[in-house]
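Encode chain A's predicted structure.
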Amino acid sequence: MGKRCRRVFSIWPTTDNAAPSASIQMKQLVTAKDLAEALKVTEGWVHDHASGRRRPVLPSIKISGVRRPTYRFDPETIQQWLNKLAKQ
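Encoded structure for chain A:
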């Protein structure tokens, strides 16, 4: 069993056997509060549109939670969404 685990970790192309996620560059995500301030709307508005309860649906990443989920937002995706709405 131990040999099998060593083989799995040895296939990653790194010198220190780190998982591949260590080499992935992460985007900086913003919170609902930060996005609400930037858009000059309430945090509740952001949550309603991120969850799909209201239209237009705000592109978001649901992190956790059932009753009141936690959302994060990619600024680039939000900017593209705003540009698309402006053209309509």
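The longest strand covers residues 61-64.
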